[in-house]
Design brief:
By secondary structure, the protein is mainly α. It is built from 11 helices and no strands. The chain has 2 domains: 48 residues, Homeodomain-like (Arc Repressor Mutant, subunit A); 148 residues, Tetracycline Repressor, domain 2 (Orthogonal Bundle). Helices cover 72% and strands 0% of the residues. The relative contact order is 0.10.
Length: 230
């Protein structure tokens, strides 16, 4: 096989990310990706272990970038509330740099996360771990109440993701003159998310966020759900 073009790997990654974001994994073919990249599909097999290997590489590359960015924030010499705000900003900036990220995340979660392997899950866990470190620092400093890190993660990240994936709906609402929301400012929205989560974590607030349930309670709930299904 002749040597691949020097930019073929990056072209494949960009093309695959865009196609997966629109059509999902199952409805995307290697031919679709090759056509979008303007390359022979043999180049995909040259660089990647088939379609699933390419898909996982895209997800892992995104998770590595988020892990590096949020890890640097957790390690920074900032106050806990500034770190938490920077965590949201960092995720938003990464979504700006990788516009397919929110759509890929939503599609994979809606599909049961069934293609995520151990390596990908560990990269995701590292991001959650960085957030947990920030929250723990805030609790120790007496400025945050104790809260379940994954609950806070969803409160921070889900709105940022949904803001981007709902852009077509906001445009349609505005176009049909039902609600003038197409021009909703991204920075103002991110500031709104940060304000809400920081207020809910305030150690002086009245209503705490849910904390991790004891193991016995968790097992009881699992037993109840299992019984309900049977």
């Amino acid at each position: 096989m002749p040597a691949p073009p020097p930019d073929s790997r990056s072209r494949i990654l960009a093309a695959a990310s865009a196609v997966f974001a629109v059509h999902g994994f199952d409805d995307t073919s290697v031919d679709d990706i090759a056509r979008r990249a303007g390359l022979n599909k043999a180049m995909i097999y040259y660089h990647f272990d088939g379609k699933r290997g390419l898909y996982l590489e895209i997800l892992q590359d995104m998770m590595r970038a988020l892990g590096t960015r949020t890890g640097a924030i957790a390690d920074a010499g900032l106050a806990p509330h500034d770190k938490l705000a920077a965590f949201v900003d960092g995720f938003s900036l990464e979504a700006d740099a990788r516009p397919d990220l929110p759509f890929l995340m939503v599609r994979e979660m809606a599909d049961g996360a069934r293609r995520l392997d151990g390596d990908t899950l560990r990269l995701m866990a590292a991001i959650l771990g960085n957030l947990a470190r920030i929250l723990d620092e805030g609790v120790r400093a007496g400025v945050f109440r104790k809260a379940e890190p994954f609950a806070v993660y969803l409160s921070l990240i889900a709105p940022v993701v949904m803001f981007r994936v709902t852009a077509p709906a906001r445009e349609a609402l505005t176009r049909e003159r039902l609600a003038p929301v197409a021009a909703l400012d991204r920075d103002a929205f991110v500031a709104h998310v940060k304000h809400g989560v920081l207020a809910s974590l305030n150690a002086g607030a009245r209503s705490p966020l849910p904390v991790a349930a004891p193991a016995a309670s968790t097992r009881a709930r699992r037993t109840t759900r299992t019984g309900a299904r049977s």
